[in-house]
Amino acid sequence: MTGTDQHVQPKKKGLTRRQKRGVSRGVQYAVFVAAVIAFAVLADWDRLRNQFAQQDIAEQMFPDVITLALKNTVLYTVTGFAVGLALGMVIALMRLSSVGPYRWLAGVYIEIFRGLPALLIFIFIGVAVPLAFPGTEIPGGTYGKVALALGLVAAAYMAETIRAGIQAVPKGQMEAARSLGFSPARAMVSIIIPQAFRIILPPLTNELVLLFKDSSLVLFLGVTLEERELSKYGRDLASQTANSTPILVAGLCYLLVTIPLGFVVRRLEAKAQEAVK
C-alpha cells in the first residue's frame, strides 16, 4: 500500500433527498402537534363554551335555521349559479368569436367583474340601479337581485372556465362534425360544448361552493326577516342573545353543504385525471 493510499479518507455520505424530505415532514408534524397542544392547554375552554356553545340558544334556532336560513342560502346560490352559467356561456362564446367587437366586449366584462369585489356588485345592484332607473324593479324582488348580483360575479369566472374547456376539446372534433354536414353552430352545441362541460365540471362545482359563501353578501341589499340567509340569521340572533352560539351554528350549516360539495369536486377531479391517463 502506497503512502498516497494511506492518506485517502472515505467520503462521508449525507442524507439522501428522500431522507431530507422525511426529516422536513417530521419537523412540520412536530410543530403542528406542538401548536395544537399549546392551544389546548392555554385556551380558556369555559369562556369559549359559554360564548359559542350554549345548548339552549342553539336549540331555539331550529327548525328555522334549516327551513328558513339554509333554504334561502341554497336558493340564492342556485339561482345565482344558473344566471352566471347562462351569462358565462354567452360571454365565453363572444370571447371565442371571430368578430372583433364581441371579443373586446367580452374581455372588458371579464376584466371588470373579476377585478371588482363582490360586495361592490351587490351595492351597485341594490343602490345604483334604483337610482339610475327610477321605478324599475328587478323581477323576483330580493331573490332576483341576489341572483343577478351573484350571476354577474360568477359569469366572469365561468366565462374563462368555459372558454378554456372549449379550447381543450381537440380541433379534430369540430372538423369531424363539419365533415358530417354539421353547421358550425350545431357542431358547437351538439359536439364541442358537451365535451367541454365534462372537462370543466370540477371547476364549475368549485365555483358553486364559492357562490354559496358569497351569498352572505345579501345583507347589503336589505332583506326582510323571511329573506335572511345563514350569515344574516346568525348575526341577528347573536345580537339578540348577546352570545355567539348562533354564529357557530350558522357556520356548521355552511359546512353541511360545502364539505359534501368539496368531496364531489375531488371525486370529479380524480375521474378527470383517470380519463386523461
Task: Give the biggest beta sheet.
Answer: none
User: Whole-number radius of gyration?
Assistant: 27 Å
The percentage of residues in β strands lies in: under 5%
By DSSP (H or I, 4+ residues per run), the number of helices equals: 12
Structure description:
- The protein is an all-alpha fold and 277 residues long.
- The protein is 79% helix and 0% strand.
- The protein has twelve helices and no strands.
- Helix 5 (64-95) packs across helix 8, helix 6 (100-115) packs across helix 8 (141-168) and helix 9 (171-179) packs antiparallel against helix 10 (184-214).
- The model has no long low-confidence stretch (mean pLDDT 87).
- Its main location: membrane.
- Residues 9-20 have a biased composition (Basic residues).
- Keywords: Amino-acid transport, Cell membrane, Membrane, Transmembrane, Transmembrane helix, Transport.
Task: Summarize this structure as a short list of keywords or feature phrases.
277 residues; 79% helix; transmembrane; Amino acid ABC transporter permease; ArtM/GltK/GlnP/TcyL/YhdX-like; cell membrane
